[in-house]
Amino acid sequence: TVIFIRIADLSGISSKVSKEKLFSLLDRLYESFSVLAKKNGVFRVDTAGDTWMGVTNCDTDQSYSHASVMVSFALAIIKVASETLVDQQNFELGFVKILCGLHSGPVVSHVIGSLGNPRFALFGDTVNLAARLLSGVESKPGLVLCSEESAKLIQEQSPDSFETSLMRPGGDVYWVNEKGMRARAAIDRVHAKRRLRFLRAEM
Fold first, then answer.
1. Other CB atoms within 10 Å distance of the CB of residue 144
2. Closest residue by Cα to residue 184 from 96, 93, 79, 84
3. Which of 37, 48, 80, 169 is the most buried (most CB within 10 A)?
4. What one-character DSSP code corresponds to residue 154?
């Protein structure tokens, strides 16, 4: 299962903060991603600007859990991003919002640049389809989106933990969440707004 994670409106953020604060934001966020990836068994493939790419069932055998493992990781990433301030000195800019898209299928892996600065890379339709989920009409910050293939695997691997719902009738993009999470998500949004008001009051 391949995942792409993108920081929403990074160009807008970059126009509001200095380059030093922008790099600080990326450092804080991607460090959190790395910690969560290691904890959840997700292998980081690449980081480029506003986009982070990872994979499961590639460097280790996760044949019977790779899709559900990736969903757990994605939900943890969204939570950590929602608690990460864009600017630690300016609470008015709020917290980071991210886009997530994942797809399950075959990939081809290869090490590129073996003579200097080698890096691990993935290729194939699976990678392309996962990336497209970030730019589709259904893509919205704070949601974990997946393909029909991933949705089926998620239900097979963790039927009691996650639920999948079509984003629109007749479509092939699904929204994934923890079971019973829709009601909790509304509560979390209220808590986030309260926390932001508290931080502003402390300024």
1. 28
2. 79
3. 37
4. H
Q: How confident is the model at residue 187 (pLDDT cuts 50, 70, 90)?
A: very low
Instruction: Give strand pairing partners of 5.
Output: 52, 100
Cα–Cα distance measured from residue 7 to residue 23, given in angstroms and rounded to the nearest whole number:
13
- Give tens-digit pLDDT for 19-69: 999 999 999 999 999 999 999 999 999 988 889 999 999 888 999 999 999
Q: How many other C-beta atoms are found inside a 10 Å radius of the C-beta of residue 106?
A: 7
CA 191 from chain centre, in angstroms, equals 21
Q: How far apart are CA 46 and CA 38, in angstroms?
A: 14
Chain mean position to CA 60: 20
SS3 (DSSP) at 156: helix
End-to-end CA separation in angstroms for the chain: 43
Cβ atoms within 10 Å of 190's Cβ, excluding its own: 9
Angle separating helix axes 66-82 and 148-157, nearest 10 degrees = 100
Cα 6 to Cα 37: distance, rounded to the nearest angstrom? 15
Return the closest-CA partner of residue 16 out of 78, 86, 96, 109.
86
CA atoms lying within 13 Å on the CB side of residue 61: 0
